[in-house]
Design a protein that fits this description.
Largest sheet: 7 strands, mixed
Number of helices: 7
Helix content: 25-40%
Distance between the termini: 24 Å
Number of domains: 1
Strand order of the largest sheet: 1-2-3-4-7-6-5
Number of strands: 7
Strand content: 25-35%
Structural class: alpha+beta
Length: 229
Amino acid sequence: MSYSHAVTIRRFAELLAERVDVGWLTESALRFTFACALMDVEPFHHYSIDFECALPFHTGSRLDLVATELGHDHSVVAEFKYHHERLYSVLPCIALAGKLYRDLFRLAFTEAWWSCAAYLVYLTDEIMADYLCDPQFGCASLWQLAPDDQLRIGPDSLAGRSKTFRKAIGDFAHYPATVTCVHRDVFTTGHATRELRVFQVTHEPDEIYDQYWTWATEILGIAPSLLKG
């Protein structure tokens, strides 16, 4: 792995394996474990990491984790998803898959705006893993990415998708990006198996991002030096 946070991601997977063994798994626990890995490996302190931070220009939208290094802004941003059987009675798998893509698009905008490293950390059980790898549901190209393999996503990712899938993504699909699989893992305890994916998201040059930049600098009068870390 050649990306800048490879050691941190490996440390996160080690800590997550310990948590899986204990059996206390929640989405919040994923955030906390990732923060611990950042502080273990990199020059981050507890006051350098925040949760539920506002996503610029998207009212009501929040980012799960934002970490800043001394002298830099918004060094690492991460979104977390944990899908398990208790969710399936509330939302169908297709809606959960749409929300997964929604986070990828949100991270694309964030990475473009802040020039930060952007990651989606996703843990799920066998039910959702089987759904995602089934070609008929249109998510296999993402789920089956091997480490260092890439997938382009954008508005065309909605072609042929159901209304439920598109509704779950909302208005975020117009942010084109490249998604790179940076880590895969499988955790087995007793009869339960959980699969981990960590994806890095980088935006692709597009006028949609330029419009925000122009709006901020020319209309709002924000200095370019204040926009990016």
